[in-house]
Amino acid sequence: MAAAHLVLLLLVAGSHGFPTVAEASEAHPGYAGTDTCEGPAEVRMGIEEYGGGRIVDITHAYQPDLPAFASGEVTGPVVRLKESMANGSLYNLSELRMECHRGTHVDAPGHINQDHFAAGLDVDTLDLEVLNGPALLVDTPRNTNITAKAMESLRIPKGVRRVLFRTLNTDRKLMWKKGGDLSYVGFTEDGAQWLVDNTDIKLIGVDYLSVAAYSDLISAHVVFFRIPV
Ligand SMILES: *[C@@H]1O[C@H](CO)[C@@H](O)[C@H](O)[C@H]1NC(C)=O
Ligand SMILES: *[C@@H]1O[C@H](CO)[C@@H](O)[C@H](O)[C@H]1NC(C)=O
Ligand SMILES: *[C@@H]1O[C@H](CO)[C@@H](O)[C@H](O)[C@H]1NC(C)=O
């Protein structure tokens, strides 16, 4: 097994009250006019009890307007009818098409580490024990990226393994903004290094499409994925 790596989860952390996917809230405006999930109402609520804890569904609906990782870009059509009965086919057949690095996603260990990629460390190899369990939601200082100084100021206790970082991105509703915006807040290289050196965190969740600030896009990922340099 290659070097240990952190699991990077990209999502929006909702918190005020009990936000659901379809329901609007200050942190999660929801999706007007769309019922984003199929299934019975109690499932669509997006809140479940698990082992005495609370599960809040803060995933984003995959839809054409979802921002993509480039200035001004959107995801575009995700589903299309490949075969259509309306057009004379004997059946309807839909095709799904999107990049894996869209919406609420987890970075694969090989995303920015060629050795991990070559070793076949894809998302299936991630430890479910790391991915599941209680998480701490922290608000980062709004006037900075997640630097070493910002990390230090958060005073995240030792022993905490999963942290969702809510940042200026949520205030700016960047995940609801049509078109990608590269001025999002994320980890700088020194912020990533501070986290690796001083905390027990194994899972990081952030509220935009990349865990690393655009200015430190590769270097901060490299720290998290532990490429020996
Ligand atoms: C059905 O046929 C029309 C006319 O050829 C075409 O414009 C449309 O894209 C087709 N739709 C599907 C789902 O195949
Ligand atoms: C097949 O797709 C068409 C176009 O979306 C839809 O109107 C029709 O209801 C579908 N048929 C079935 C059997 O689902
Ligand atoms: C965070 O860094 C990006 C560059 O990656 C920059 O555009 C943005 O203004 C910074 N945000 C803050 C709050 O410092």
TrEMBL record:
Its source organism is Zizania palustris
Kindly state which keywords UniProt assigns to this record, in alphabetical order.
Signal
Leader sequence residues: 1-17
* MF terms (GO), sorted A to Z: arylformamidase activity
The answer to whether the entry has keyword Zinc-finger is no
Q: Which InterPro entries match?
A: KFase/CYL
Q: What is the designated name of this protein?
A: Cyclase family protein
Q: What processes in GO biological process is this protein linked to?
A: L-tryptophan catabolic process to kynurenine
